[in-house]
Amino acid sequence: MDGVRIIEIKKSVFENNEIDANNLRKELKSKGVYLLNLMSSPGSGKTTTLIRTINLIKDKLRLAVMEADIDSDVDAIKIKEATGVDSIQLHTGGMCHLDAEMTRQGLEGLPLEGLDLAILENVGNLVCPAEFDTGSCSNAMILSVPEGDDKPLKYPLMFSVCDTVIINKIDVMDYFDFDMERCRRNILSRNPKARIIPVSAKTGEGMEAVAQWLLEEVRLWKAQKA
Amino acid sequence: MHELGIVFYIIRDVKEVAEQNGVSHVSKVVMNIGEVSTVVPEYLTDCWRWAADKEELLKGCELEVIVTDAVTVCNACGKEYPTVEHGKNCPFCGSTDTVLLRGNEVEIKEIEV
Fold first, then answer.
1. What are phi and psi of A137, to 5 degrees?
2. Which end of chain B is less crowded, N or C, counting CB atoms within 10 A of the terminal residue's CB?
């Protein structure tokens, strides 16, 4: 029998993705395109929130959307029909998240020249997307009231990687045991710097704050030197 | 599904190392998986079996998982404590200003060829 040889590797499996993500961020900076990675559970109202937001900001900057799902293109069609902005569907082929390389390939399908903002609607899932840096300029997530105010305790990594948390479906708060103050405390225990925006994408309450936040983010980022 | 994605990353990295070292078959891959890494070792080895056997280089290759302890350090009192038992709250001084020191790694330790 041949002797066994051991080769030491000692390398994080996320290392290649982190390199890809940093390269993508540099590329986006040079093109002046802000990439937002939007995450959430399935059914939190991500697409509805996105449509409302886009309709509030689409006259102020040029934007496009990438919808990532395991299958179907219902979300991409919905966004395109409801807002008129460019929207493409990415299929992850069964994978539960997007990584930086998949994001880069997706961006190739968008008209990047002259674009200010690209929004990536990640796969609905609070576990895996948090682990893979997509190369985005910032991460945001939508938590909806029916999911409960204890979600930040159950999915700590997701809440620690997100700069902004949008709390959706506040119009149904009376029907659930959802304590907004407790939710805020739970989010801030994971990320003391998190920005929290309560909204109802259905009634439109709070949506102006989402639009302002996003416009300001893009403006500040564009003003920064590379 | 999560573990399957990680398996694809491991395969990509192992292939790269094998190529650099002129290796035609790998018999074992050893992983360090932190206990708060959100990777479930049993799922990882199941996904590994399915995906690895599809690769000539990795047919029958065993995946060994070493689970590494999670340790958190308290910024307030400077002491270290086991993360899984106490979470974010320091058991010594009660502070929540604590940072995970180790235990979230998903790392390829070594391969046997």
1. -80, -30
2. N
